[in-house]
Amino acid sequence: MLKRLIFGLMMVLLGAFLIACSPQVETVEEAAPVVETDSEAEEVVVVVEDEVAQVVEVAEEEAAEPEAVEDEMEEEMTAEGGEAIYMVSAADSTVSWLGSKPVGNSHTGVIDISEGELTLADGALVAGSFVIDMTTIASTDGAPPRLTEHLNSDDFFGTATFPTASLVINSAESLGGDQYAVMGDLTIKEITNPIEFTATASEADGVVNATADIVFDRAMYDVQFGSGSFFQDLGDDLIADEIEITVELVAMHGNAEMMEEASMSEDTMEAGGEGLYTVSAADSTVSWLGSKPVGNSHTGVIDIAEGELTLADGALVAGSFVIDMTTIASTDGAPPRLTEHLNSDDFFGTATFPTASLVINSAESLGGDQYAVMGDLTIKEITNPIEFTATASEADGVVNATADIVFDRAMYDVQFGSGSFFQDLGDDLIADEIEITVELVAQK
Predict the structure, then answer these.
(1) What interhelical angle do 31-77 and 2-26 show, nearest 10?
(2) From residue 315, how far is each of 160, 271, 395, 405, 443 by CA, in Å?
(3) What residues contact residue 17 under an 8 Å CB cut-off, 6+ apart?
(4) Alpha-carbon gap, residue 396 to 428, rounded angstroms
(5) In terms of C-beta density within 10 A (0-12 exposed, 13-18 middle, 19 or more buried), how is residue 179 classed?
(6) pLDDT higher for 71 or 221?
């Protein structure tokens, strides 16, 4: 473009030069050619001026192209009637699930979202859809790996054959505020059924946050294992048909590249947002205390396998960690048979149940670094709610969190020496309450 502009200017100068020089050149010849040469020079000037005008016009058009492209992109994302499409950020969106038995334990987990979009009209939710990567289904309650393998198998979701599920929002009726009554279609294992649920959606600064608690009947999608809709007299093997999922979507007004940049920016910025910290297993510990109502007690440690903590504006909001129960050991000089006994089926049965876990569902600030925590503790694949007080503080990208927790082992089928299972134990009675002290170190 610069070369063309320079060329045009040179042509203008050339034309001017011809005009200036032509009378002197032609004075040697006849007068008539001089007039003719002047006319030709004027024509050259006109042609050159036209050329320069075209060059300038093209330059202006090309300079306006980025703005035109932006306008075009905006028009593509904005439909008639004030509708705007927001692309779901897979990295910032989650699906969590809960499956349970009518009587007994339950399991929780997560699944990744692949892609999606939400449509808002004048700031109100009107439509949308998202795709779930079923191959990423996993538990978060410390269940052994075989549970994930089973969920992926043909007994449940058959993810090798049906790797994705999807939900399409057909309509969203405002219930006031940010709440909507949603009607849509849920597809699992290529079977589609209508579904209704309540959702919340709000937009701020080009970002939409939408959440929904959805309950669906797995039997309607041919998920048969342990289902009373397909089998009778299952007894303790009966698993509820209803599966609960919580969907949390973050969608942005822009293309995928813009969303990726925004996500990277959020990952590197803690102030004003949530930050995810990964627990360092090497630097974190769980110590325990078990005792008799009258008599001696024992102390020991257990290793933490993995975990994470979530902080928002420097405050603890969520988290989870997994305990490697096979590492349980005493630290008070007790003989090796105590450790063997703790690993046996009399106590924690670590050969069958190698891990335990604790999930932080909420953390309410009590002032300073203290929090009232509500969560779920899972031992021997039995999950029960638990409440305790914890401290958590962040400095230089490192979170230190501690908690003293007391739980009733009888609630997790740890029977040996328990007055909840046996009577008249005398000196063999062991308290059901076990005290653990958790010390977590987590880093960005």
Answers:
(1) 170
(2) 40, 11, 12, 20, 15
(3) none
(4) 49
(5) middle
(6) 221
Fold for 83-268, please state it.
Lipocalin (2.40.128)
Residue located via tokens 């979530």: 310
Element (H, E) at 286: strand 285-291
Please indicate whether the domains covering 83-268 and 274-443 agree at the CATH topology level.
Answer: yes
- Is residue 403 a contact partner of residue 360, using CB atoms and an 8 Å limit? no
Do 284 and 276 form a contact (C-beta atoms < 8 A)? Answer: no
Distance CA 38, CA 20 (A): 10
CB contact at 8 A, 112 and 84: no
CA angle 344, 349, 352 (to 5 degrees): 130
Contact between 378 and 385 (Cβ < 8 Å): no
For residue 69, give both structure tokens.
Answer: 């492209």
CATH number 3.30.1330.10 is the correct assignment for the domain at 274-443:
no
The answer to which of 190-204, 261-275, 376-390 has the lowest mean pLDDT is 261-275
Task: Give the contacts of 355 (CB within 8 A, at least 6 positions apart).
Answer: 142, 143, 144, 305, 322, 323, 324, 325
**3 state SS of 107:** strand
d(CA 99, CA 243): 5
> Hey, CA dihedral for 367, 370, 372, 375, is it positive or negative?
positive
> Residue type for 120, please?
L
Identify which of 278, 360, 390, 369 has the alpha carbon closest to the alpha carbon of residue 315: 369
Token code pair at residue 289: 């205390």
pLDDT, tens digit, 9 for 90 and up, residues 227-282: 989 998 888 888 989 999 999 999 997 544 444 444 444 444 433 346 889 999 99
Concatenating the DSSP letter of every residue in 298-316 gives EEEEEEEEEEEEEEETTEE
Q: Which residue has the tokens 């050149």?
A: 25
The model's pTM:
0.46
d(CA 326, CA 324): 5
- All structural domains of the chain with their residue ranges: 2-79, 83-268, 274-443
- Which pLDDT value is given to residue 31? 43
